[in-house]
């Protein structure tokens, strides 16, 4: 336990205070930035900056020319106060006086010293990059000697530290409980948005930056002899445009034929946004023999509670039709759904005009269940009737055997 001091002892609401190192460390590790307080010529200064904790030392990132770093060069170091606050919710009471917030806030006092050892500085910078994303230190260029020299690091031993927090609900006065006003808590949390690659980036988004959640919504890499399914990425857009740039490919899709690579990037970005919302799991299809990007496919209508999912949003370049790639892609997706996720039902939806797609779905062993009238709007504005197919877990063993036999007789595309 951290020993309370006059500076870390609350004058009111002492029940909200904690000196437990594990609880303090959890807040410091969850937060990405802190506020560094210090004095300059008797005047207070507050500086927002990045931090990372290694053991019982809090490291603060800065520039060699900043005021606090310059002041910390001497043997005496720099007396500082560091605060970190996580806002967990807004509390709405019946009375204005009792509106509040749920939060966790750490305050650390002490004397910080400038880190002069290059090895210690490198460990801090590596830890800071790893905090941003696990594995990132191996997936980016390390700092050069010049960059390391231009970076300043303050080290603050965690000794005089406290945690103050509020949790729970509304705490109205008993006399206000019958007032006709809404009261409750609105939880808050920091969530990452969809990664936006810099101009010219061709590398896919690293796995550590992809949304982690239910395996039903994870685009796990699936490998076969004909096709490789890997998570769709904006970096695939140009190759997708080249591979699928034929009107016949897009004749019955919800998007018109892309006119250029930029339009394809917009389509891919839309698929990735739907994936980020949990509405879709998009894959890119690669030819297993050549590695070329040849198409894309997805899970959608994902319902883990009903153990059901649909397969669709599939485009495949014309040269790879009837090659075994589409059949094996469906086999891989069906195997993942039934054998790994425990699905009991997989569905397909296709335009009633798309007789080629209907025949392909029927060859998979799916059963036509009916027609959804005026189900979706086509790119030309007309309303399409949608044919719905499905396969159940009871039908899967026989369908799997037939699909494997079909693929056994199909030579991979060279």
Tell me the layout of helices and strands.
Elements: E1 17-18, H1 21-30, E2 33-40, E3 43-54, E4 57-63, H2 67-71, E5 78-92, E6 100-114, H3 118-132, H4 145-150, E7 151-157, E8 160-166, E9 184-187, E10 222-223, E11 227-231, H5 237-243, H6 261-276, E12 280-287, E13 293-303, E14 308-316, H7 325-340, E15 345-351, H8 355-364, E16 367-377, E17 383-392, H9 396-408
Helix pairs in contact: 5-6, 7-9
GO molecular function, one term: acyltransferase activity, transferring groups other than amino-acyl groups
InterPro entries: Acyl_CoA_acyltransferase, GNAT_dom, Pyridox_Oxase-rel, Split_barrel_FMN-bd
Domain N-acetyltransferase: 224-394
Give a written overview of the molecule.
The protein folds into two domains: 174 residues, Roll (Pnp Oxidase, Chain A); 196 residues, Gcn5-related N-acetyltransferase (GNAT) (Aminopeptidase, 3-Layer(aba) Sandwich), CATH 3.40.630. The chain contains nine helices and 17 strands. α7 links the parallel β14 and β15. The termini are far apart.
The CATH class designation of the largest domain is: Alpha Beta
What's the mean pLDDT score? Answer: 93
Q: Strands across the major sheet, in which order?
A: 10-11-12-13-14-15-17-16
Q: Low-confidence stretches at least 5 residues in length (pLDDT < 50)?
A: none
Question: How many strands in all?
Answer: 17
Element-by-element helix/strand order: EHEEEHEEHHEEEEEHHEEEHEHEEH
CATH superfamily of the largest domain: Gcn5-related N-acetyltransferase (GNAT)
What is the CATH architecture descriptor of the largest domain?
A: 3-Layer(aba) Sandwich
Protein name: Nitroimidazol reductase NimA-like FMN-containing flavoprotein (Pyridoxamine 5'-phosphate oxidase superfamily)
Organism: Micromonospora palomenae
Domain N-acetyltransferase: 224-394
GO molecular function: acyltransferase activity, transferring groups other than amino-acyl groups
């Amino acid at each position: 336990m951290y020993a309370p001091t006059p500076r870390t002892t609350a004058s009111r609401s002492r029940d909200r205070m904690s000196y437990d190192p594990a609880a303090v460390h959890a807040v410091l590790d969850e937060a990405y930035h802190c506020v560094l307080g210090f004095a300059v010529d008797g005047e207070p200064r507050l500086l927002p900056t990045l931090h990372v904790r290694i053991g019982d030392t809090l490291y603060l990132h800065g520039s060699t020319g900043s005021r606090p770093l310059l002041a910390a060069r001497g043997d005496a170091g720099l007396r500082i106060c560091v605060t970190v606050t996580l806002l967990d919710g807004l509390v709405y009471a019946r009375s204005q006086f009792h509106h509040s917030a749920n939060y966790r806030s750490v305050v650390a006092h002490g004397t910080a010293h400038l880190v002069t050892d290059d090895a210690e500085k490198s460990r801090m910078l590596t830890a800071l990059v790893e905090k941003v994303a696990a594995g990132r230190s191996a997936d980016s260029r390390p700092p050069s000697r010049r960059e390391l020299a231009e970076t300043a690091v303050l080290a603050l031993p965690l000794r005089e530290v406290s945690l103050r927090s509020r949790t729970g609900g509304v705490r109205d006065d008993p006399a206000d409980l019958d007032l006709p006003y809404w009261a409750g808590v609105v939880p808050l949390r920091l969530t990452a948005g969809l990664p936006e690659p810099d101009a010219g980036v061709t590398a896919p988004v690293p796995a550590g930056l992809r949304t982690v959640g239910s395996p039903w919504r994870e685009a796990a890499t699936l490998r076969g002899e004909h096709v490789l399914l890997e998570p769709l990425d904006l970096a695939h857009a140009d190759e997708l445009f080249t591979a699928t740039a034929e009107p016949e490919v897009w004749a019955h899709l919800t998007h018109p034929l892309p006119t250029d690579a930029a339009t394809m990037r917009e389509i891919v970005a839309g698929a990735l946004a739907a994936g980020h919302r949990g509405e879709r799991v998009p894959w890119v299809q690669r030819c297993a023999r050549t590695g070329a990007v040849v198409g894309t496919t997805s899970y959608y209508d994902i319902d883990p509670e009903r153990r059901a999912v649909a397969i669709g949003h599939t485009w495949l370049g014309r040269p790879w039709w009837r090659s075994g790639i589409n059949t094996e892609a469906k086999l891989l997706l069906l195997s993942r759904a039934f054998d790994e996720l425990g699905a009991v039902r997989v569905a397909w939806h296709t335009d009633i005009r798309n007789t080629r797609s209907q025949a392909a779905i029927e060859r998979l062993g799916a059963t036509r269940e009916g027609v959804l009238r005026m189900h979706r709007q086509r790119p030309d504005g007309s309303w399409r009737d949608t044919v719905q197919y499905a396969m159940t877990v009871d039908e899967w063993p026989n369908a799997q055997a037939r699909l494997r036999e079909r693929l056994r007789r199909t030579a991979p595309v060279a």
